[in-house]
Amino acid sequence: MKRSNFRLSNVAEIAERAAQSTQNFDLAVREFLDSWETMPRARRADAIADEPIAVGRVEDAYLAALAEHLAERGGLDVPTWTEKPERFLREPFFAGGLESLKAILIVESPSAFRRRLIFISADGLSRPHRVMVDDESPPA
Amino acid sequence: MKCLAMRVGDVRERGDIDDIRRLGALLGVTSADQAIKLVSRFYPADALPPKTRFGLEEMFGSGSS
Fold this sequence. Notes:
Shape of chain A: globular
Largest interface: A-B, 28 and 23 residues
Order of helices and strands of chain A: HHHHEHHEH
Low-confidence stretches of chain B: none
Strand content of chain B: under 5%
Shape of chain B: globular
Oligomer: heterodimer
Number of helices of chain B: 4
Radius of gyration of chain B: 11 Å
Helix content of chain A: 40-55%
Strand content of chain A: under 5%
Strand order of the largest sheet of chain A: 1-2
Order of helices and strands of chain B: HHHH
Distance between the termini of chain B: 22 Å
Structural class of chain B: mainly alpha
Number of helices of chain A: 7
Mean pLDDT of chain B: 84
Largest sheet of chain B: none
């Protein structure tokens, strides 16, 4: 896999990198989330405005869910491309692959993901710096 | 930390699940009881969220150590 040194600045680039095999899809999502956290508010609408190319059934729905989730969290308009039928799954997808977590993921999954039948944990999109800030320290 | 969070949000990868499996193998963990005892050295056992227990039981088996 070729590596890209450019930081991701929009959702569409996640799909481009995955399609061109310059970066693994999950890694590209994480890198984009890191960019999003430090992105000026004025640039955030542009970062989710363009529809990504199709890369896979789950990935296509996942990127729409991600864009909708970030838009709602940031008080931005949800891009219209996220509502296209091909941006929704017909069969559920559960992240992690553990049967025992399915019921919990159904409850926890953010609404933009859940309504597309994508089930992730509530903190599934959190990045390490955020976890360190939000979590309590272990007892001494 | 990974056991407590049990974060899953990836499409192809398995997030914390694979990391926990790898750590368990490195530490010689062979059952969920062992895994929970290990985690309980750092976090109170009665404060572990259900998903941590369920996840560890499925990953390492629910038999006693």
